[in-house]
Design goal:
Layout lengths: L15 H18 L1 H17 L1 H5 L4 H33 L2 H6 L5 H30 L8 H23 L8 H15 L11 H7 L5 H12 L10 H29 L7
Helix pairs in contact: 1-6, 2-4, 2-6, 4-6, 4-7, 4-8, 4-10, 6-7, 7-10, 7-11, 10-11
Length: 272
Amino acid sequence: MTATAFPRTVPTRTRRAPRLLGLAAAELSLLRRNRMQLITAIALPLLLPFCFLPLAQNGASGPALAAVLGTMLVTVMLFIVYYNLLCSYVARRQDLVLKRLRTGEASDATVLAATATPALLLTAVMLSLTMALSIPVLELPLPQNPLVLALGLGLGALMLVPLALVTANITRTVESAQITSLPAMAVLMIGAGGILPLELLPEWATRLIAFLPSAPITALVRLGWLGIDADGATVTGADAWLLLAGQTGILLGWALLGALFVREHFRWEPRR
């Protein structure tokens, strides 16, 4: 069932924010009751820095540490934003919650954004704790440009929301999300440099991987934290701005494509 199947009332702009906050508060209550989902979202980010401790103890170079940072933070976002939201959207659709909410005054965007809001807030908190914990554990320097780091992580988290909605279209049940999420998670981990050693791949493959949705997140983490590019060279001045614009453009492009697909093709009723 597509978004055009139901007549929609046009919400007033002044009441949009209270509706969003009300629905997000209800969604937060549901998240707090799901202990397994909540424990995974809290425990995994705090354990990840210790998984990369041997690399730091062996004197890893700046580029290697930057790759670790990017992989670590993308992994956190994949589980808290992408997989968590995929399960939430499928569960709400199975229970006909999304369909019932569409009959109210809240717009489609408000309904979907309210589900995503608690996960995005939790992601912001856990990413901050993970980075704060990584500095002493992995003996990392303080970020050189926190704004670039925040921009990359913020856009990356937002980009994963429409990706979760797109995957929900091909996911019949919450249990089947464990299968349907695997291709996207594998591709995103490759883009983050967490599966394949990119330096061993041919140049055409490296260039192609650079356009995957997660690759710009890692690139902006490298630039924001250590001020280096994919080759480990220090980037400053106009080159830094050019790199920042290019990676931001890729992230925005993926987010826009996902949003357009969701607007036209998102399935609001359970698959039969």
